[in-house]
Amino acid sequence: MWWENNFVRVRHGRLYIGRRPAEAIARAFGTPIFVYGRSRILANIDRLQTIFSRATGLEVRICYALKANPNPGILETLRKRNGWIDAVSPGEVEAVRRAGFPGERILFTGTSVSREDLRRVFRHRGVTVNIDALEQIELMKELKEAEFPGRQIRVSVRLNPGMGRGFNPRVVTAGARSADGIPVKFGLEEKKILPAFEKAASAGFLPVALHQHLGSGWVAQDFAVVKTAVEKMVKVAREVEKKGFPLEFLDFGGGFGPRYSNAQRPFPVEKYASYIGQKIARSGLGIRAIAVEPGKYLVADAGVLLVGVEYLKESHGLLFACVNCGTFNSLPRPAVYPQAYHEIVNCRAVRGPDMKPVTVAGNLCETGDVFGREILMSVPRRGDVLAVLCAGAYGRSMASHFNLRTIPKEILI
């Protein structure tokens, strides 16, 4: 199968997770349950580290986008691999500090930050704070002078390069507006970047980096736009250094994701890394490191959601597998984003002679509560276990108690 890897594979017609049949895991722990694979996460981070190190010849900081999945076991796995963290709230900063990450390996990229947000982040020495607005600096200055005098606080500045890409308009984080007209709130226009560096330095902060983030879920078709954004980033970085602000690193953000469907043309990460390396090598920049912020790329295909089939329902010529879990309580992506797709298989018989289109229906009072629409699979029976694949990212972290339903358990194997 196109989705098989060192974590999920088919043996004797059944789905195996790690070295165990998925059905055995479901019997042992119950359903619904998220199952994450440590070996797959490590393989993904090692692959990225190798790709970007070879392409750039610089120190590469793989900053895990914590919002994808804050599971403590995943954090421990990444910490032991000397990973970095991209945190977007003070709560995330505090969570990774409890997990043992030093402040020096944390980037805080907030938006619409409050004084209390900043207070909680400033308490952790070494954290690099990303400036999302020119107006934010005054708030930071007031707080620093009042409560953290003499504290050296490292900052970076977030560039909005005027172009963004993502699998859904609501996850595009650069440009003026998303494709459906929503004004994009993130980052600073190019003309405000130098004033931000100057204002931050005069306010007593230490500017060390330039950052950008275009959006989430890039595919092959996005490469041309992403290349243009890389060019813009390097150009602006040169202007910053010429004005007397030496940069320690450039942070190119995240965006490149895993393969969610057979039809998807994956984003060419190797070509992307090579292009970044070429542009930096020709730029004359004095940086010693680059950062990237993968979330889905590291953990999505290292996670499976196992759900139990309660019964099969036929209605208006349609076939529904009614399962013991709801999207909003476990994996909201298919309900929130129409473009979000997850492969779903019957663990008992991944392929078989009775393949039919089946809609996997959750147990919530919401029409959009379906994990997959008319997915071709072996027709489930009552008591079967279905596996929602590529479910390690933006599942548990976005889950809620909608309808007062419980959130699934998690295990890391």
Give an account of the 3D structure:
This protein is α/β, with parallel strands linked by helices. The chain is built from twelve helices and 19 strands. The chain has two domains: 8-37 and 300-412, Lyase, Ornithine Decarboxylase, Chain A, domain 1; 109-294, TIM Barrel. 30% of the residues lie in helices and 24% in strands. Strands 4, 13, 14, 15, 16, 17, 18 and 19 form an eight-stranded mixed sheet that branches. It is elongated and about 70 Å long.
Q: Strand percentage, roughly?
A: 15-25%
The CATH topology of the largest domain: TIM Barrel
Number of strands: 19
Q: Biggest sheet, open or closed, and with what strands and sense?
A: 8 strands, mixed
**Structural class based on helices, strands and sheet pairing:** alpha/beta
CATH architecture of the largest domain: Alpha-Beta Barrel
CATH superfamily membership of the largest domain, which one? Alanine racemase
Radius of gyration: 22 Å
What is the approximate shape?
elongated
Estimate nothing, just give the exact number of structural domains. Answer: 2
**First-to-last CA distance:** 22 Å
- Unreliable spans are none
> What is the percent of helical residues?
25-40%
The first-level CATH class name of the largest domain: Alpha Beta
Mean pLDDT: 96
Q: What is the count of helical runs?
A: 12
Descriptive keywords:
single chain, 413 residues, alpha/beta, Lyase, Ornithine Decarboxylase, Chain A, domain 1, TIM Barrel, 2 domains, eight-stranded mixed sheet, eight-stranded parallel barrel, 12 helices, 24% strand
